[in-house]
Please model this.
Amino acid sequence: MQYLPLISISSKGASVFLFALLFLFICAFIFIVFKYGWLYVNAVASDTHISLLQMINMSLRQIDVRTIVEHRIMAKKVGIDIAPSSLEAHYLAGGNVNKVVRAIIAASKANIELSYDHACAIDLAGRDVFDAVKTSINPKVIDCPDPAKGCSTLDVVTKDGIQLKIKARVTIRANIDKLVGGATEETIIARVGEGIITTIGSIETYKKILEGVDWISKLVIEKVLTADTAFQILSINIVDIVVGDNIGAKLLADQAEADKRLAQVDAEKRQGMAIAREQEMKALAEENMAKILASEAEVPKAIAQAFREGNLGIMDYYHLKNIQADTEMKASISKSGIPSTTK
Model:
């Protein structure tokens, strides 16, 4: 009898524990029903059964349950059954489930073959798969060149030197099979621009371009511009042509100016050489004059020596002095400008 109080106390403790456990279970059930009940009902009503346990498991892995359920229902309504595990895997990989499912639905409506795995691969490659499907259904028009890159026209020069400013528009359609690994729109714009520039640059005169441009578009399209790209070119339309500057004339003028400057430099060089030569000749003349003066200083000595040796007489000496005086007189007359009188 002495153990009856202890049994009574332990029974009361067990009852409290069971009551607390039951209370926690009821709270958890209410929480699950409150959070996942409406999603579960929608899934069952749409014949896309996803169990509550799967939903709880998604939440534990930080997956947006509503996104998975709603997009599985969306795909199921158009006859596409996507496994919840596939949607979960793409979500965990960082993909955009919304765009992938919408792309698959749009492709199915347009009778375009696009599997779920291919759509996921395109999305994970960084491409907008839904936009690609829309571009495949409704072709897209892009400007060439792209004004967003800071260039509004293609500047082309024909063989006659005239500059043409050209704007073109390219209609493209997405090639879904090449979206993974295929070149982007920038490559298409660059190739079309290159094709237009090379085609027009080979024309003899700009007047032929102004007569019509349809043949230019045909020539550019005939070049395989879409190789290794994710798009197909449907048309190329040249929408605007503006005649620019005469680049050929400017180049000729610049060349003439450059030749003129070279000639001026050469002339200045020759002038400098001539001045230097003139100075050299003056120095040489002064040197020769010094030699003459030195030689003239030796003449009196030679005359005196001739007198001593008897080789020069007095009459010879006077005759020499007369000749010297006559020469000096003629030199002075020529310097003063008075005409000399010939006897």
Observations:
- The first strand starts at residue 140 and ends at 144.
- The mean pLDDT is 80.
